[in-house]
Design a protein that fits this description.
The protein is an alpha+beta fold. It has 8 helices and 12 strands. The longest helix is centred in the last third of the chain and has 15 residues. The N terminus is likely disordered.
Protein backbone atom coordinates (compact mmCIF):
# COMPACT_ATOMS: atom_id res chain seq x y z
CA UNK A 1 0.00 0.00 0.00
CA UNK A 2 1.33 3.46 -0.89
CA UNK A 3 1.13 6.15 1.77
CA UNK A 4 1.74 9.76 0.74
CA UNK A 5 4.26 11.46 3.04
CA UNK A 6 2.88 14.50 4.84
CA UNK A 7 4.49 17.48 6.55
CA UNK A 8 3.61 17.36 10.25
CA UNK A 9 3.48 21.16 10.55
CA UNK A 10 4.52 24.30 8.67
CA UNK A 11 8.23 24.82 8.11
CA UNK A 12 10.12 26.29 11.02
CA UNK A 13 7.41 25.35 13.53
CA UNK A 14 9.18 22.31 14.98
CA UNK A 15 10.65 22.86 18.44
CA UNK A 16 14.43 22.52 18.94
CA UNK A 17 13.94 19.39 21.06
CA UNK A 18 11.95 17.77 18.23
CA UNK A 19 14.63 18.67 15.73
CA UNK A 20 17.37 17.42 18.04
CA UNK A 21 15.55 14.09 18.41
CA UNK A 22 15.78 13.51 14.66
CA UNK A 23 19.38 14.72 14.43
CA UNK A 24 20.55 12.59 17.35
CA UNK A 25 19.84 9.40 15.40
CA UNK A 26 23.20 10.01 13.66
CA UNK A 27 25.03 12.77 15.56
CA UNK A 28 28.20 12.46 13.46
CA UNK A 29 26.39 12.99 10.18
CA UNK A 30 24.19 15.69 11.77
CA UNK A 31 26.98 17.53 13.63
CA UNK A 32 26.67 20.74 11.60
CA UNK A 33 22.90 20.80 12.01
CA UNK A 34 23.12 20.12 15.75
CA UNK A 35 25.43 23.12 16.12
CA UNK A 36 23.03 25.18 13.99
CA UNK A 37 20.36 24.72 16.68
CA UNK A 38 22.11 27.42 18.69
CA UNK A 39 19.85 30.48 19.08
CA UNK A 40 22.40 32.73 17.35
CA UNK A 41 21.94 30.74 14.13
CA UNK A 42 18.13 30.69 14.20
CA UNK A 43 17.77 33.56 11.66
CA UNK A 44 19.81 31.57 9.14
CA UNK A 45 18.06 28.20 9.48
CA UNK A 46 15.01 26.98 7.57
CA UNK A 47 14.03 23.68 9.12
CA UNK A 48 11.81 21.44 6.99
CA UNK A 49 10.60 18.47 9.05
CA UNK A 50 8.48 15.73 7.52
CA UNK A 51 7.34 12.19 8.16
CA UNK A 52 6.21 9.25 6.09
CA UNK A 53 4.84 5.82 6.84
CA UNK A 54 8.42 4.58 7.11
CA UNK A 55 9.88 7.24 9.39
CA UNK A 56 10.88 10.83 10.04
CA UNK A 57 13.10 13.06 7.96
CA UNK A 58 14.51 16.54 8.21
CA UNK A 59 15.87 19.08 5.74
CA UNK A 60 17.86 22.18 6.67
CA UNK A 61 18.60 25.19 4.49
CA UNK A 62 21.40 27.19 6.13
CA UNK A 63 21.35 30.67 4.59
CA UNK A 64 24.34 32.29 6.29
CA UNK A 65 26.51 31.04 3.43
CA UNK A 66 26.03 31.82 -0.26
CA UNK A 67 24.66 29.70 -1.82
CA UNK A 68 22.62 28.28 1.07
CA UNK A 69 23.71 24.87 2.34
CA UNK A 70 21.22 22.04 1.81
CA UNK A 71 21.38 19.26 4.41
CA UNK A 72 19.10 16.27 4.96
CA UNK A 73 18.85 13.33 7.30
CA UNK A 74 16.43 10.54 8.06
CA UNK A 75 13.78 8.72 6.04
CA UNK A 76 14.19 9.15 2.27
CA UNK A 77 10.46 9.43 1.55
CA UNK A 78 10.06 12.05 4.26
CA UNK A 79 13.03 14.06 2.94
CA UNK A 80 11.54 13.90 -0.55
CA UNK A 81 8.22 15.19 0.75
CA UNK A 82 9.88 18.04 2.63
CA UNK A 83 11.73 19.23 -0.46
CA UNK A 84 8.70 18.86 -2.72
CA UNK A 85 6.63 21.06 -0.40
CA UNK A 86 9.25 23.77 0.17
CA UNK A 87 9.82 27.13 -1.49
CA UNK A 88 13.42 26.50 -2.55
CA UNK A 89 16.16 28.99 -3.51
CA UNK A 90 17.63 29.21 -7.01
CA UNK A 91 20.95 27.68 -5.93
CA UNK A 92 22.08 25.43 -3.08
CA UNK A 93 25.29 23.85 -1.88
CA UNK A 94 24.39 20.26 -1.12
CA UNK A 95 25.82 18.19 1.71
CA UNK A 96 23.75 15.06 1.20
CA UNK A 97 24.05 11.35 1.81
CA UNK A 98 23.87 9.41 -1.43
CA UNK A 99 20.40 8.08 -0.64
CA UNK A 100 19.02 11.63 -0.33
CA UNK A 101 20.59 12.99 -3.53
CA UNK A 102 17.73 11.86 -5.83
CA UNK A 103 15.24 13.88 -3.77
CA UNK A 104 17.33 17.03 -4.31
CA UNK A 105 17.91 16.22 -7.97
CA UNK A 106 14.18 16.48 -8.58
CA UNK A 107 14.68 20.23 -8.06
CA UNK A 108 18.36 20.94 -8.79
CA UNK A 109 20.95 20.15 -11.43
CA UNK A 110 24.27 19.14 -9.86
CA UNK A 111 25.89 17.90 -13.07
CA UNK A 112 28.44 20.75 -13.15
CA UNK A 113 29.60 20.28 -9.54
CA UNK A 114 29.20 16.91 -7.82
CA UNK A 115 32.01 15.75 -5.53
CA UNK A 116 32.23 12.45 -3.61
CA UNK A 117 33.29 13.18 -0.03
CA UNK A 118 34.08 11.39 3.22
CA UNK A 119 32.59 12.44 6.56
CA UNK A 120 35.21 11.63 9.18
CA UNK A 121 34.90 11.62 12.95
CA UNK A 122 37.46 11.69 15.75
CA UNK A 123 37.52 8.22 17.33
CA UNK A 124 40.82 8.41 19.23
CA UNK A 125 41.83 11.00 21.85
CA UNK A 126 43.36 14.10 20.27
CA UNK A 127 47.15 14.27 20.35
CA UNK A 128 49.09 17.04 22.00
CA UNK A 129 50.21 20.09 20.06
CA UNK A 130 53.57 19.64 18.35
CA UNK A 131 56.47 21.67 17.02
CA UNK A 132 56.11 23.55 13.73
CA UNK A 133 59.80 23.55 12.84
CA UNK A 134 62.66 26.03 12.93
CA UNK A 135 61.79 29.63 12.17
CA UNK A 136 58.02 29.09 12.16
CA UNK A 137 55.52 29.65 14.92
CA UNK A 138 51.97 28.57 15.70
CA UNK A 139 49.51 31.45 16.16
CA UNK A 140 45.92 31.73 17.35
CA UNK A 141 43.90 33.45 14.60
CA UNK A 142 41.13 36.04 15.04
CA UNK A 143 38.97 38.15 12.69
CA UNK A 144 41.93 40.53 12.46
CA UNK A 145 43.67 37.85 10.36
CA UNK A 146 40.87 37.69 7.78
CA UNK A 147 42.85 39.35 4.98
CA UNK A 148 45.85 37.09 5.56
CA UNK A 149 43.69 33.96 5.59
CA UNK A 150 42.01 34.94 2.34
CA UNK A 151 45.34 35.77 0.70
CA UNK A 152 46.70 32.37 1.68
CA UNK A 153 43.67 30.41 0.49
CA UNK A 154 43.71 32.38 -2.79
CA UNK A 155 46.77 30.38 -3.84
CA UNK A 156 44.15 27.76 -4.66
CA UNK A 157 44.53 24.22 -5.82
CA UNK A 158 42.26 21.23 -6.31
CA UNK A 159 41.18 21.07 -2.67
CA UNK A 160 41.39 24.70 -1.55
CA UNK A 161 38.74 25.70 1.03
CA UNK A 162 35.62 27.32 -0.39
CA UNK A 163 33.58 28.01 2.77
CA UNK A 164 35.66 30.43 4.83
CA UNK A 165 33.83 33.34 6.47
CA UNK A 166 35.31 35.81 9.01
CA UNK A 167 32.64 35.04 11.62
CA UNK A 168 34.11 31.54 11.94
CA UNK A 169 37.32 32.90 13.48
CA UNK A 170 35.32 34.85 16.04
CA UNK A 171 32.89 32.08 17.00
CA UNK A 172 35.17 29.05 16.79
CA UNK A 173 38.81 27.95 17.01
CA UNK A 174 41.37 28.97 14.36
CA UNK A 175 45.13 28.47 14.24
CA UNK A 176 47.80 29.20 11.70
CA UNK A 177 51.53 28.87 11.11
CA UNK A 178 53.65 31.93 10.36
CA UNK A 179 57.04 31.57 8.70
CA UNK A 180 60.21 33.38 9.78
CA UNK A 181 59.06 36.49 7.90
CA UNK A 182 55.67 36.63 9.63
CA UNK A 183 53.76 35.38 6.57
CA UNK A 184 50.83 33.07 7.16
CA UNK A 185 51.66 29.75 5.44
CA UNK A 186 49.10 27.36 6.95
CA UNK A 187 45.63 27.69 8.41
CA UNK A 188 42.80 25.66 9.82
CA UNK A 189 39.84 26.06 12.12
CA UNK A 190 36.25 25.21 12.86
CA UNK A 191 33.38 25.80 10.47
CA UNK A 192 31.03 25.70 13.44
CA UNK A 193 31.21 24.89 17.15
CA UNK A 194 28.60 24.40 19.85
CA UNK A 195 30.27 24.44 23.25
CA UNK A 196 27.13 23.43 25.14
CA UNK A 197 26.33 20.47 22.87
CA UNK A 198 30.00 19.50 22.60
CA UNK A 199 30.01 19.55 18.79
CA UNK A 200 32.55 21.00 16.34
CA UNK A 201 33.25 20.70 12.62
CA UNK A 202 36.82 21.31 11.47
CA UNK A 203 37.47 22.90 8.08
CA UNK A 204 39.39 25.49 6.07
CA UNK A 205 42.56 23.40 6.39
CA UNK A 206 45.09 24.77 3.92
CA UNK A 207 48.87 25.02 3.54
CA UNK A 208 50.73 27.20 1.04
CA UNK A 209 51.76 24.97 -1.93
CA UNK A 210 55.44 25.83 -1.42
CA UNK A 211 55.32 24.99 2.30
CA UNK A 212 53.79 21.53 2.17
CA UNK A 213 55.51 18.47 3.58
CA UNK A 214 56.89 20.33 6.60
CA UNK A 215 54.25 19.30 9.12
CA UNK A 216 52.41 22.61 9.25
CA UNK A 217 48.99 21.08 8.60
CA UNK A 218 49.46 18.55 11.38
CA UNK A 219 50.57 21.24 13.82
CA UNK A 220 47.49 23.33 13.05
CA UNK A 221 45.20 20.31 13.39
CA UNK A 222 46.74 19.30 16.73
CA UNK A 223 46.30 22.81 18.07
CA UNK A 224 42.63 22.86 17.07
CA UNK A 225 42.00 19.44 18.59
CA UNK A 226 43.80 20.44 21.78
CA UNK A 227 41.63 23.48 22.38
CA UNK A 228 38.44 21.61 21.50
CA UNK A 229 39.35 18.92 24.02
CA UNK A 230 40.04 21.53 26.69
CA UNK A 231 36.58 23.00 26.07
CA UNK A 232 34.85 19.62 26.41
CA UNK A 233 33.99 19.01 22.76
CA UNK A 234 33.60 15.27 22.08
CA UNK A 235 31.75 15.12 18.73
CA UNK A 236 34.46 16.38 16.36
CA UNK A 237 34.00 15.86 12.63
CA UNK A 238 35.47 16.99 9.33
CA UNK A 239 34.95 16.49 5.61
CA UNK A 240 37.49 15.44 3.02
CA UNK A 241 37.30 14.99 -0.74
CA UNK A 242 37.58 11.29 -1.62
CA UNK A 243 40.33 12.16 -4.13
CA UNK A 244 42.42 13.89 -1.46
CA UNK A 245 44.24 10.84 -0.13
CA UNK A 246 47.01 12.90 1.51
CA UNK A 247 44.49 14.79 3.66
CA UNK A 248 42.71 11.58 4.62
CA UNK A 249 46.00 10.04 5.75
CA UNK A 250 46.76 13.15 7.82
CA UNK A 251 43.40 12.95 9.56
CA UNK A 252 43.70 9.21 10.16
CA UNK A 253 47.10 9.75 11.79
CA UNK A 254 45.40 12.17 14.17
CA UNK A 255 42.63 9.82 15.29
CA UNK A 256 39.92 10.30 12.66
CA UNK A 257 38.07 7.51 10.86
CA UNK A 258 35.62 7.50 7.96
CA UNK A 259 32.00 7.62 9.12
CA UNK A 260 30.21 7.64 5.76
CA UNK A 261 30.45 8.74 2.14
CA UNK A 262 28.36 11.67 0.96
CA UNK A 263 28.11 14.26 -1.81
CA UNK A 264 28.90 17.98 -2.06
CA UNK A 265 28.34 20.43 -4.88
CA UNK A 266 26.49 23.46 -6.14
CA UNK A 267 23.11 22.84 -7.74
CA UNK A 268 21.03 25.21 -9.85
CA UNK A 269 17.26 25.10 -9.84
CA UNK A 270 15.76 23.14 -12.70
CA UNK A 271 13.53 25.09 -15.07
Amino acid sequence: MHTTPVLPRSEGAARPDELRAVLSADPVWSAYAIADLQPAYAPYCRWLPAHSASGRGLVLLFTRLDPPVLFATGDVAAVTAALDAADLPDQVYMTLREEHAPAAERHYDFSADRRPMWRMALVEPPVQAGDVGDGARLVRLTPAHTAQIRTLIAHGGAFAPDAFEPYQTAEGVFFGVEDAHGELVAVGGTHVADWQAGVAAIGNMYTHPAQRGQGHGGAVLRAILGELAERGVSNIILNVDQRNTAARRLYERHGFAVHCPYLEGVGRRRV
